[in-house]
Amino acid sequence: DAGVTQSPTHLIKTRGQQVTLRCSPKSGHDTVSWYQQALGQGPQFIFQYYEEEERQRGNFPDRFSGHQFPNYSSELNVNALLLGDSALYLCASSARDYLRQETQYFGPGTRLLVL
Amino acid sequence: AQSVTQLGSHVSVSEGALVLLRCNYSSSVPPYLFWYVQYPNQGLQLLLKYTSAATLVKGINGFEAEFKKSETSFHLTKPSAHMSDAAEYFCAVTLSGGYQKVTFGTGTKLQVIP
Questions:
Q1: Residue A28, CB half-sphere, CA atoms under 13 Å: how many?
Q2: Distance (Å) from the alpha carbon of B102 to chain A's nearest alpha carbon
Q3: How confident is the model at residue B101 (pLDDT cuts 50, 70, 90)?
Q4: Distance (Å, rounded) from C-alpha B75 to C-alpha B89?
Q5: What is the pLDDT of residues B51-97, one digit of tens each?
Q6: Which of A110, A115, A102, A113 shows the shortest CA–CA distance to A74?
Q7: Neighbours of A40 (CB within 10 A)
Q8: Measured between CA atoms, how close is B15 to chain A, in angstroms?
Q9: Hey, are the CB atoms on A42 and B106 less than 8 Å from each other?
Q10: Nearest to A48 by CA among A31, A62, A65, A36
Q11: Is the CB of A33 less than 8 angstroms away from the CB of B104?
Q12: Between chain A and chain B, how many beta carbons pairs sit less than 8 Å apart?
């Protein structure tokens, strides 16, 4: 059973460019959440997708957008990149279990460096 | 709103000694609490979770945590540290009811001294 996968593993961009990161959830999961983890910090919630809709959003600007596909995979898009967007971007997938206790399982992350 | 505070950004223990990583939470409703471990250049791996059942939760790799409502704490312990336990540990909280965002602490780096 494959876990959460993310691509690419590493990415280098320059300021002002746009980037797309991809995530495939764990088999049987229908919800995808994205997190930004800056160096030396804990992950910060960006947004969550369920049934192809953004259900919740953290305190991130509109430059951060996403999409969820019918097969539950997801993309994170960041426009007009800033140096401060350099971070590890983590995708987590989840599904309700019989007790409605959602647990998020994380992928290995995509490390983005903005120069 | 919910939050977690991890006391101590760095903790050092000798191999074979007790590991104690501290986490206090704040939540307006009964929370779900998690501990994750992150090894260098990797994603987060779930160690254990509390979801309103037993207050003493056992996880992988010999770790356990106890939910204490009166102290709003969820400290992580392991009786005997192993070199392979060296990593960064994150405490996290979410609200019950499903499909809630997870709020993480700032992390504690555990160093194990041989």
A1: 10
A2: 7
A3: confident
A4: 11
A5: 877 889 999 999 999 999 999 999 999 999 999 999 999 999 987 66
A6: A110
A7: 10
A8: 25
A9: yes
A10: A31
A11: no
A12: 67
A49 and B101 in contact (C-beta within 8 Å)?
no
Question: For B48, phi and psi rounded to 5 degrees?
Answer: -165, 165
Please list every residue in chain A whose beta carbon sits closer than 8 Å to the beta carbon of residue B98: 96, 100-102
Query: What is the distance between the alpha carbons of residues A60 and A77, in angstroms, rounded to a whole number?
Result: 12
Radius of gyration of chain A (CA): 14
Length of chain A: 115
Question: β-strand A74-78 against A64-68: which pairing, if any?
Answer: antiparallel
How much of chain B is helix, strand and coil, in % rounded to 5?
Answer: 5, 60, 35
Which residues in chain A are contacts of B102 at CB distance < 8 A? 33, 43, 45, 92, 104
